[in-house]
Each structure stands twice: as structure tokens, then as C-alpha cells.
Amino acid sequence: MQKIVSIKCPKCNNKHSFYRYGKDKSGYQKYLCRKCNHQFAPDNPNSRASKHPRCPMCNKASFLHHDHEYYSNYRCGDKKCNHSFFVPKTNSILPSSMSNLVGKTDFKRMRYPSHVILCALSMFYLGKNSFRNIALILRLVNNINVSHTTIGNWCRKFAPLFQNFSYELIPMLDFNSDEWHADETVVKINGKKHYIWFIVDSETRFILGFHLSPHRDSPQAYSLFDSAKDLGEPNCIVTDKYSAYKVPAKIIFGPDVKHIRVNSFKDDVSNNLIESFHHQFKAWYKTKQGFNSYASANNLISMFVFFFNFVRPHSALNNLTPAQVAGLNLSKREKRKFLLVA
Known about the structure:
By secondary structure, the chain is an alpha+beta fold. The chain has helices spanning 114-126, 131-141, 148-157, 159-169, 218-228, 246-253, 272-286, 294-310, 322-325, 332-337, and strands spanning 18-23, 29-33, 39-40, 62-67, 71-76, 84-88, 179-189, 192-201, 207-213, 236-239, 258-261. Helix content is 31%, strand content 19%. Strands 9-8-7-10-11 form a five-stranded mixed sheet, sandwiched between helices. A hairpin with a 5-residue loop joins strand 1 and strand 2.
């Protein structure tokens, strides 16, 4: 009985017009495409596969047009198509700072009970209280003597614990919205300028990611976008006119996601949403009078982001949290597990 094999030319995708063209060195049947005269042996498992990706428009072979540090620019080999496309180098993109937290992941071996620690954390991240004010309130109201230094350590060391909670909760949320907004602002660490990069979902006001860096250039935008690209599929990315966003937005999110670069506040699409968030962040940040170290700043900002996303109710969202607007619906038992209820 004759064996029926579906054959397709790897060069032009022809499926119906071939000549048998002898055998190759390994004894496998060769075919000659009558459309493009390409010779190939489809049954040979050792046939050399192309190291370049296929053209997404016509599925024909491509060649490397330009090779950059964070992406490669390929062009279709068919002169009629001549499509140019980009492929990111994921191994070259550094992870965002939000993935490099140091501290405790539980409340074991703590001198004070967990509800006292959570009370201090809530007063610090939901209000504008300093460590000394929190220690004073705990002493006068609850008759609990806690050093302001201890409270400062609490606010830093539990960042990995709440980061793990967010990793468990984020898969339950939906961030497929019209716009994601990205922007950066300045903070000071030990008297030196650093830049904190944020990306926010427009419909839920959820902070999708952040990246803290001493530099303000394209590699930082790559790290920011790469940390948020798997959370959803936006229709467009909104940024300001800063050139560092242009290429990373195109490479990370692809040509299907539109990149809107805002010229002024009077445009139809503005970046006011993330500028409003920066106002809230700076109001909390000014009470700290800067950060002492990079690791401390990274942990504190991570905790602020968690409380902003999952704990703080927003008046613009009908007194719901961004996580609730994104679809988070937990039972009382689950809320206690994730420390979202007293």
C-alpha cells in the first residue's frame, strides 16, 4: 500500500506541485519544488533547520538584517514581501528590581504578635506617619512599647512575604484593557538621584510593575515592560515623548499593540492617570525624606505597591481596591490567609 505523505516546500509553502529528484546522501527521497526550484528531503531528520524565524506575514525564510543588544531585526527573504520584524533577546534583558527583594517570608520568631506588626505596617503605608509617630500611637493607644527602629525593620523585612501573596493573587485578575500607562519619576537614595519606573493599568488603576534604577535609558524600559508583558494584552501603551520608551514598547509588545506618545496634557489621550499616581507616591515618599540604601528603597516601594493594589480603597473606584476592580473576589477565609482582613 502506498504511503501518503503531506509535503510542503519550506521556502515558498507550495503543497501540490513537486518532482521526485533522486535521493540525498543519507538515502532519503528528495523533491524539487516546481514553483521555486528548491530541493529538500522532508523525511531526513538531520536536515538542517533554519536558525532564523519565519516571516510572520508569508511564512517564508528570513535573514538577519540588524543585530542589537536587546533585539534582532529580521527581514523576509522574498523581495515581494520584504517584511521587517523584530525578535527580542529575552536572555539579554535584565530582570526588574521588583524581583530582587530581600527579607522574611513569614512571621516566625518575631517578638510581637502578627496583628501588632500588621497594624504598624498599615499606619505606615496607608497614611503619612513616620516610624516615631507609629511607635508613639502604639504606646499611647495600645500600651505597646515598640522602638521606632523595630518598626522600620518591620516595614522593610516583610516585602518578600507580601510579594509572594501578590504572585498568588495576580493570576486571578484580568488586565486586558485599552491602555497601559508608563512613566518614571525621581527618588533620592543616600543623597543620589535614582529613577523609579511604573506601569499602570488604566481601567483598574493596578500597578502592574515597577523598576528602580540609577539610570534613565532604554535598558530600564526593557526591564519594566518585560516584567508586565505576561499579565495581559493591552490595546496600546501610553508614555510621554521620552525616546527611551519607543523601541522597547515595539519590541516587547509587538506591532499589534499601539504605542501612543503624549505631547501635552491637552491631547485626547493623556498620561494624567500615572501622573496622578506619582502625586500619591510622592506624598508618601516625602515623609521618608529619601531612602538610605537601594535594597531598603526597593523593599519599601514594593510594600507600598502591594498596599496600593490590594488594601487601599480608592474613591475613584467606588471605594474598591484596584485588585477588586480587576476581578478579585475572595472569601473571608482566603482574605485572612493573604492578610487582607483583620
